[in-house]
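#data-curation
PF: Archiving a pair of folding outputs for the training set. Convention for this channel: one message per protein, sequence first, structure tokens after, nothing in between. First:
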Amino acid sequence: MFLELRMVFLHRAGFRGIVFCALLGAAMARAADPELSGFVKDENDAPVAGAHITVRAAAPASRGSWQAETDPAGAFSVALPAPGDYRIDVERQGYYELKDRSIHVEGAIELMLMINPVREVFQSVDVNEQPSPVDISQTRNQERLTGTEVNDIMYPNSHSLRDAMQLIPGVVESRSGELHFNGSAESQVQYVLNGFNIADPISNQLHTTLPVEGVRGLDYSSGRYSPEYGQGSAGVLAISTENGADAFHYTATDFIPGLQIQQGIRFGNWYPRLGVSGPIVRGRAWFSDTFTSEYTNSLVTGLPDGENTRSGWLGSNLLHTQVNLTPRNILYADFLALVDNEGRLGLGPLDPVSTTQNVHARQYFGSLKDQFYFGGGSLIELGYAHNEFANTDTPQGPEFFVFSPQGRSGNYFVTSTQGTTRDEVRLHGFAPQLHAAGTHQIEAGVDTDFLRYNGDFSRTGYDLIGLSGQLLSRTTFFGSGIFRVTDIEVGSWILDTWRISKRLQIDAGLRNDWDRAVADDGWSPRVSFSWAPFRAGHTRVAGGFALTHDAVPLDPFGRVLDQDALTTSYSAPGVPSGPPTVTSFDRGPESLKIPNATNWSLSVDHQVSEHLTAGVAYLRRRGASGFDFVNTLAPDAPPSLLPLPNGAAGGIYQLETLRRDNYDSVQFKVHQTLAGQAEWMVSYTRSRAQSNALVDPNLPVALQLLPSFVPLPWETPNRFLGWTYLPLPFKNWAVSALVDARSGFPFSAQLDTGAVSGGVNSYRYPVNFDLDLALERMVTLRGYRFALRGGVDNLTNARNPTAVNNTVGSPHFLQFYGYEGRHYVLRIRFFGRAKK
């Protein structure tokens, strides 16, 4: 006998719902030994791995619950004590919960449970997407930011996914615009888009602009995480994109140009974005396409009128598709195209228009990923991606660049054209689940990258001016500056997820990374645990150890093939103090290593109520074998802030792996989700980030080692972060707010010769404080849905400077510049036709 039952539960709003489809198969089975098994899938029939299944007896007097977790193929199995009526819950981060669904069990039952991914909605609904964060199956140290939060929370530059990342506790943006995750350099995190590396191979930084409306979620894992990822000593940021569905969905944001009210009313920045998703073939193939563009007309305070603005245009389009070739074979494809043209890049209070650059950049990314599902929970995933970057930087003129106590002047001294590509091949497989003192889920994989980098550099030179206005030195460059660098990276890994009991899980894995450029390989053992010490399961203790590695950047290998410098020092106007000195770069005779870090982490999370959690986490990271250039002719020279330190003395800078970084942090966090999209979060992080290298944010690789550890330029010992999106008592009104208060970034004082005066990074900017507030109104106009938002960035008009005069003896020494001021923000979003 075979019985099929299909049940659909839709929310009254009709916009998003939970679909629960059950296929009940009753065969000859003992009624006294019932068993639930089946699959969890999303709306496009793709398996949902890691979903938590809870089965409870329906009778009020009955006690007890039975849990299971879906394997990579979405399969699960639960043995029940007796026939009867039960209720089923399904939870998975990034999906809406399936709650209290009734089922009657007599014998062996097979179910198909369908859950919908979280998407933005037009109005609040009484459905929450957040599963319990104390889930024992999650051993990694992870922070998640959903696409809904990215679009709901008020933060500066809300069109920018990079700026949204600062909503994650532990993530800050430095004065140079780089992102820093848990005290790391931007290059020490691996960035993946739907499983593929999208970092620029030259610097390993994230130079990709993605539409915020096209992102489903950001998952940042640090300290302890799967050995599947191995090119980020400080963690991995996994970006997942939206899928299409059988219903068409449209969005349009900021499609009306805005005005900027700052030093008068004028045409300001404009960030129009469009999105469309839907079926290619209903029930078989779907697409999601999002486009973002940025027209910037930014104002820089502290500069004369007419010379205080910079403009540019950027366009980026991301297309994601899914095709179900068969029920067990799914093909995914992505294509990204990005064009960026920026004028006056680098404009600042101490950097006038003449010192800026015009930048023309483009990026193309394409990937294919094929997933094959087999019986018994086994899965194989094969993928290929091609990533291409091209960048041209042009200064405003041919004049020499000038460093003076009053700031910079002249024209920037570097003209460059750079191009790089990455071809990535991935193989990832899951074996059927094994049973031995619990359950074991074994997975393994191989990842191979083929990298190419072409550089063409031409430099004029720069002058160093003293306090009295005299010329101290002049540096020029010679050589072709044309080079080509190639590299091959191979990573392989294996992981055993060992579920000992429903209250204890241990993950143990091993990874190996080999890099041809350094002729070195690194082993990465990783082990982590997750334990519920109390029977109720509302508290989780998790921790672990991981030895992680960084990707090898191509920039230092290009630098040794690049131009050399010639510096002449002057004792009087027009009178050289000696012959010119040469500064060159060389790989050196010493063998190089892949940069690595040891990570120890421990966290405790407690579920206070159904959707209120509190936690504390500790992270200790010790980085070693980082890339740096050491001047073999003057290794102990005093630290200098010039582009070429100790240029007057010359030197041979050899590429070494002697840099070390230290990071320690304790983080406290409280998070609550409410009805619909409403939620709030507050966190406080106490941290320390230090290095033995003199790090210049403008240089990819440090040029000086120090005898002791000093604060990194982005160190923030104290940071309080809080944000919320809450409904107001008035229908269809909501408030969004952000509070971000942190220690000011450190900086060094310098003499007019460029040498550091006093301790490195011994000064600090003032405390940085941001309070952003917005009101949002949901409206329906002529049958179409809109969301109107008006708000203020930096509501308190905090100064928050971005530049400082750091030259000792200057009349403006320790004067701060670049106050951001208060900004008024208007956003209009279009969601398509209102559903009846």
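PF: Second:
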Amino acid sequence: MRYAIVGTAGHIDHGKTALVRALTGIDTDRLEEEKRRGITIDLGFAHLEEVAPTGENIRFGFIDVPGHEKFVRNMLAGVGGIDMVLLIISADEGVKPQTREHFDICRMLNIRHGITVLTKADLVDAETLEVVKLEVADFLKGSFLDTSRAPLVAVSSLKKEGFDELRKQLVRVAMETSARSTDGAMRLPIDRVFTMKGHGTVITGTMISGSVKKEDEVELLPDGRRLRVRGVQVHGSSAEVAQAAQRTALNLAGVTPEELSRGMTLATPGSLRPTRRLDVSLTLLGSAKTLKDRARVHLHAFSSETVAEVVLIGAKDAKAGSTVFAQLRTAEPVALAPGDRFIVRQFSPVITIGGGVVLDVAPGTKKVPVETRAAFLRTLNDGTPAEVLLVRVGRRGVVGLSMKDAVTESGLLVRDLQPLLADLKKRGEIAQYGDVLISKSGVLDAQKSVLGRLTTFHDANRLKEGISKEALREQTDLGVEVFAGVLDALAKDKKLEVQGELVRAAGRGVAMKSDESESKRQIEEAFSRAGLKVPALKEVLATVKVDRTRAQQIVTLLLRDKTLVKLTDDLVFHKSALDALRAQVTAMKATSPKIDVAKFKDATGVSRKYAIPLLEWLDRERVTRRVGDERVIL
């Protein structure tokens, strides 16, 4: 089964609804007001199945749009997801204002396939019909509906004439359209919300990409809520799965109709990120007025509509017919992906003035030179997928780009990014540290930052062997994964050394002056000579020549080297004294397997002030184990 979404377009009362009814047998005017007034006000839907000459079944989903100028905003909510268009022109009236506006919208949305249908052919004679065909051909010349390559069919919905040819051309054009991907992230812009008796909340829309089935979890955007799919319908019939290019209805659990509205989107969780800033390529129609920087417009994308401010990049205004880079700053968050098409309409009076393509959904707010920004957008607009990924990663500098952000920024799933990433890593353009991607220049800048901070540290701290990993990371502002990766790379290149949690630059460490070396010898000797009856630390430090700060740093070095061991804030012992104590207590086990405080004091000759900390140290070292008031020698 092949699927194709067909949208109607054309001036009011040119027979769009009658044409769809004649083709499908379905009246798309569902509203009472539509039937009373005889005009289409909102979107209508129908479907049709045909068989291609190859034997392949084709299911067409029709979106019938209003033609009245007052309802162009409703028309725009329907045409964003179509595969082909039926541009409908009444043979007795020819090209009219909404014909032109609808046609411009189709071109701006980059619709590539369609059929021009001359309706009400029974109201004109054969000669007039030929003249109208020539006029229409001239109007369409050079476009995707150029009659030299796209069909033009005359029909009469009243007399059911010309429909065999129209069905034939529908099949032919449908076979020429590219099938939409069902493997990508699911996206379903909502165009209707209602309650169905016995089912609850139901939404409908045209599936843009991917697929969805019963019990799937979907994300409601821009809200971010997670919802469960209770049931699926495709073209009005229950289905196991709905996929790209199908008119889809979903029965949703955990949400009321009042909480939903046209313009919202259902998507694979985590695949889209709502934003109020979009960097775009914007093209103005030749009939548009000059657009000034900071002008307000109505922005339409799929079924959504909001007001946006157009911030031109590197220009004060944009002339009619020109294409420029711009940032759209929206009044409400929108959930779009790179490559999505949009339409802009003048703020007042409300007429279509242009459209374009989304380039970047995460432009950020940091100011960069205009030329740098323009070059970046040119790559997004014209570059290969690998080039686009590379510049997206590159602009993040030393911070890098997480895989999650890469998905939301590119609109691709991880599985689609992996081949691009593998090629870039193989070429050395990108490194991956954990879940973070970082460009070659980003890696070099991060390494430079780490080594620079280390040099600064050593220059300011001659008496310290190095800096802790976490302290160094905080100084460089690198993420955990990037910092760890950069540290490993620099260690492998022998540009720094990592010892436990301590980092030092290669060839750097403690650099003592003569008075500091002498003070170190004095401190060590004072504790070594004292045995277990050590003096208070502050007393020892008071005897050395260096100032208190440097003396404390020297003690820290001796403690880190385990030459000295601190048992309390003011009790420090030399390693040799503690080693001797360990041997002494171990030897006591042969004559007395247990020892208490009194016996320990007698054996070592120390006071209680020293005995308790020393016994606790022996417990920690598993030389002894406390049992009540005694210690068992292990």
